[in-house]
Amino acid sequence: SASFCSEQHLQRLDVVLARLKQERLKAKLSKCTFFQPEVRYLGHIISANGVATDPSKIEAVAKWQPPQTVSELRSFLGFASYYRRFVEGFATLAAPLHRLIAELGGTKSRRVQRSPQLSPEHWKEELKDCFETLKTKLTNAPVLAYADFSLPFILEVDASYGGLGAVLSQEQNGKVRPIAYASRGLKPTERNMANYSSMKLEFLALKWAMTEKFREYLLGHRCIVYTDNNPL
């Protein structure tokens, strides 16, 4: 009910203000808003429904033209990476673009003053597809649910020699909703097929997701794991 939400809001506000007072910090009243159905915060929309990307920021992605230089590509990936938690398999999608930067632009310390141009020879169909797919996924990003620690979590993991991926979700009100997406590329030793079979890679993804990426969510809570690796 509205009265319950108001009371809950006041209780949480008391907790926040008490903590600020305890740490001898001050909040400027003119910059504070209270009892808002949603707020914009660091490029996100925070509402009762969950966390979403800020449309005013994502609008720039929809209009982003194919990069002409390594510097422009690096800027796009930097922007996209900020919202990677909304994109399933982000690391795998972005990997070919990062490889192109490494080949043409080198590391930050080795950048030349003039950014290398991306010729048609460099900007191949695979890279065009990765660029457009990232744009599409960012402009159609889901609203991420808040974790409910009274409910079990659902963890789905996947692994290939392209990278590791994981989705953390929960069934809330009869609907499975994503809480966060995570992904990363493989380290050089992990790319060695002699060291890592497909089963080991899948287990690596599970270990990484449970003990590193989503540890704060899963520690001490029930979790249902889904994997498409039969031996595992």
UniProtKB/TrEMBL annotation:
Entries under Gene3D superfamilies matching the protein: 3.10.20.370, 3.30.70.270
Domain Reverse transcriptase/retrotransposon-derived protein RNase H-like per the UniProt entry, residue ranges: 123-224
InterPro entries: DNA/RNA_pol_sf, Rev_trsase/Diguanyl_cyclase, RT_RNaseH_2
Domain of life: Eukaryota
Signal peptide (residue range): none
Identification of the protein by name: Reverse transcriptase/retrotransposon-derived protein RNase H-like domain-containing protein
Species of origin: Gasterosteus aculeatus aculeatus (three-spined stickleback)
